[in-house]
Amino acid sequence: MTATDSMFSELAAGLAELKLDLSTAQSVSLLAYVALIAKWNKTYSLTAIREPERMVSHHLLDSLAPLPHFKGEADEKIRILDVGSGFGTPGIPLAIARPDWQLFLLDSNHKKTTFLRQVIAELKLTNVTVLTERVELYKPEAPFQIITSRAFAELAEFIRLTQHLLAPEGEWAALKGIYPFEEIAHLPETVKVIAVDNLKVPGINAERHLVHVIKA
C-alpha cells in the first residue's frame, strides 16, 4: 500500500467514525490540500506537523469533527468567518465538505493568505474568499451566521475582536482543546454560552471541544 493509499484509508475510516458522508472527489480534494500544506511547509513553515500522514488526523479530521455540531447545518446560504485561519483550518476542510456554504478565511499574515489563495485556485474552491486583514478593522458587506476559530485567541478576546461581525441571530463556534473553564468564566455578561460539545477526533488522543456562544 502506498502512502497515498494509506492516507485515503485513514481519511475514509475517520469520516465514517465522524458519520460524515463525503464523496470520493471531496476526499481527493482534502488529500490534495494536505499535499499542498506539505509542499509549502518546506518554505513557509505553516505547521509544526511535517508528516502528511499525521496531517490527516490533526488537520483534516480535527477540522471536520465539529461539522455536525455547527448551527445551520441545513442552511444553504450560511456565511462562516474563520478568524486567524492560518493555513486554512478549519475553513478549507469545511469548504470542501460543504460546498453550499460560503467560507471567508481571514488572516493578517500575507504569506499564509498567499498560500490560501493558491489552495483555492488549485482546488477550484468557488465558495471560499480569502481576506488579508486585521479582524478588528474588517468591515464585511454582510454579517456572518457563524464565526469560528481554531487557535486564534482566548474566548473573551476572540469575541471582543469579532462582535461587530456577527449577525444578530448568529453564534460564535470556537474550537478548543481541553474544556475551557477559565475562559468561559471570563466572558462578559453581553454574551452567553449555550453549549459545549465534546468532540472525539479519530486518530487524536487529546481533548477537543466546540464552544457555542451567542449574544445575550
From TrEMBL:
Pfam families, alphabetized: GidB
Enzyme class: transferase
Subcellular location: Cytoplasm
Gene Ontology, cellular component aspect: cytosol
EC number(s) per entry: 2.1.1.170
Entry keyword set: Cytoplasm, Methyltransferase, rRNA processing, S-adenosyl-L-methionine, Transferase
GO molecular function: rRNA (guanine-N7-)-methyltransferase activity
This protein's name: Ribosomal RNA small subunit methyltransferase G
Gene transcribed to yield this protein: rsmG
